[in-house]
Automatic annotation (TrEMBL), chain A:
Pfam families reported for this sequence: ABC_tran, TOBE_2
Keyword list, A-Z: ATP-binding, Nucleotide-binding, Sugar transport, Transport
Family, as annotated: Belongs to the ABC transporter superfamily.
Keyword ATP-binding: yes
InterPro entries assigned to the protein according to its UniProt record, in alphabetical order: AAA+_ATPase, ABC_transporter-like_ATP-bd, ABC_transporter-like_CS, ABC_transpr_MalK-like, ABC_transpr_MalK/UgpC-like, Mo/tungstate-bd_C_term_dom, NA-bd_OB-fold, P-loop_NTPase
Protein name, UniProt field: ABC-type sugar transport system ATPase subunit
Domain (ABC transporter) ranges: 4-234
UniProtKB/TrEMBL annotation, chain B:
Domain of life: Bacteria
Main location: membrane
Transmembrane segments: 20-41, 86-107, 119-142, 148-171, 192-215, 255-276
PANTHER family the UniProt entry points to: ABC TRANSPORTER PERMEASE PROTEIN MG189-RELATED, ABC TRANSPORTER PERMEASE PROTEIN MG189-RELATED-RELATED
Membrane-protein topology: Multi-pass membrane protein
Domain ABC transmembrane type-1, residue spans: 82-276
Subcellular location: Cell membrane
Record-stated family: Belongs to the binding-protein-dependent transport system permease family.
Protein name (record): Multiple sugar transport system permease protein
CDD domains the record matches: TM_PBP2
Protein's UniProt keywords contain Oxidoreductase: no
Amino acid sequence: MSRVELSGITKRFGAFEAIRGIDLTVEDGEFAVFVGPSGCGKSTLLRLICGLEVPTEGAIRFDDRDVRGVPPAGRRLAMVFQSYALYPHMSVAENMGFALRMAGISRAERAVRVARAAETLQITRLLERRPKELSGGQRQRVAIGRAIVREPSLFLFDEPLSNLDAELRVEMRAELMELHRRLATTMIYVTHDQIEAMTMADRIVVLRDGRIEQAGSPTMLYERPANRFVASFIGSPRMNFLAARVTRVEPGRVTIDLPGLLPGVAGEPLALAVAERHGLRIDDSVELGVRSEHLGLEPRPHRLQARISFSEYVGGAWHLHAGDHPAGRLVLRHAGAPIHAGETLELGLDMAGCHLFAPSGLRVSV
Amino acid sequence: MTALLTRVRRYMDEHRFTLLDLPIWLVGMAVAFAWFAPFVWMVSTSLKYPEDVMTAQIEWLPNRITFDNYVKVFEYPVVRWAFNSLVQAGVATSLSVLFGAMAGYGLARMRFPGRDGLFALFLASLMIPTEVSIIPMLLGFIKMGWASSYQALILPSIGNVFAVYIFRQFFLGFPAEIEEAARVDGAGPFRLFFLIALPLARAPAIAAAVILFTLNWNNFLWPLLVTFDESMKTLPVGIAAFTPVVGTRTQLEGFSVAMAAVTILSVPSLALFFLLQRYFIQGISQGSIKS
Ligand SMILES: Nc1ncnc2c1ncn2[C@@H]1O[C@H](COP(=O)(O)OP(=O)(O)OP(=O)(O)O)[C@@H](O)[C@H]1O
Ligand SMILES: [Mg+2]
């Protein structure tokens, strides 16, 4: 079993700093997902854990054992690559048994272990084939099979599903989660797909430019994003950000003014509870973040007027887009009678689901 | 006439051949003929009677043919020479392909100080003409007592920059993830090379093998210098002694017998090329494997 601890990890390629001081612990048995935009350093971080790259600074510990200088093969881990990286000149069985062969395990035992893994993944009848005789999904299964045969204490996946079509991706996602449930082995999974992250992770680690923006459970990241970046990265449709201005600052409370806000029913100003040290001052430009489900046709004390520029049917519901709202473009999810482009709506803001972001991008609302 | 034109037109369309390609095509054909003519001359002469070898009117194709020359070839110890040639070309080619693969792999895939300088040095060595180093090398071999031996025939050609180059190009384009997967699976550098990289380098290996085999098989100057006994001669060296005058034969007779011998000599290289043509062109034209 493996607990992975990264402390102060930095990785430079020449002058370029790909990873900038990462502290992170992945607990034993956890399913951790690294997510972030392209080029943020997800693969690099995974390769550092794997031992394919050496950190410029910082230490990596597996179960409190420093693995500096330990080659990948000595780390009791298995990695599944995005391109599958199957050995083209070997049969599926040879591919899966390669690591065991390298470890000097007898042919007979190899056969037994490969057969067992193949059965788990339902690829027994493919064992004699070459990789090029397999479909994408089958290759993916073989790549995963090659990993589980070794009974590693840590699995690393680098965007393993990104080459599959949408349907297969959902299917394999479920299988991987099932595998994790059954093996209870620590898994670290890299993806740039936030839906994959949300559905699979015990813990999501959001990366940007080589730094951790936030790490936490999917619900925590969704409901309490640390900053505007995480808020916009997690969730689909994306969170709406409305430009606003601070009009009043009181202890634990900030009042804002939003262009296009209809006069409150009770004449009540738009105020949010904020954390102690928010650093906001009157007239600061802030952003109000509101997810589409907290913006609806229900009558609420605070309402916005918006003209629908177009609507998309997403099955069972519509995504209504208001492109020309003075505070910024809005998207909301609407289930019910169709609403057509050109209609003007009054949208109620569910203040409980609203977030306030300071000019620095940090979330200051509580 | 119009029917022919239509067919030409259709052919051109099918092969995306436009009028702009015509000059290139003409030059290509001219070069092809220039290469092919000596070959035709060789085969044609090998089938001629001695008195037809040099005629006032050029006979590109013999008016009358004889296979006598081919029979006469075997009056010389050609079997022994062919054996020597085979050992020399076979061993030298296998070794230079193996070493070329290892060096090319190292230069493309391993990180060590001075790597690119080393490769530049390899390339620079191509600029030293063989003639400059061949005499000192000959003296060296004689001093070591290796004159007229298989070592002497083989050793100078086991390192070949061309082989290094072609493998380096191939391994530069080789998917890194396959190697990384093998590293994670526990393969060290040697098993990585012999179990993963080398088996996947079939295309450059074949290309290098065909070219180097032909070069080694036809190699003339060095075997000529280093073999002192009849029994250690290679085929090209042995055949060269057919002309101008051998024993009681006339010079013209010597020519046609020599051409017969050379025709036989060229068979293995040609056979190898045609057999492996597909891989050969693959290996030369692109250096990557499809994943
Ligand atoms: N070997 C290397 N040499 C130089 N720069 C590198 C190297 N490997 C990665 N980088 C750089 O480090 C940054 C992070 O790369 P990385 O591959 O980790 O991104 P990623 O998050 O996995 O992106 P993607 O989602 O596109 O796979 C990139 O800017 C990349 O150009
Ligand atoms: Mg990546």
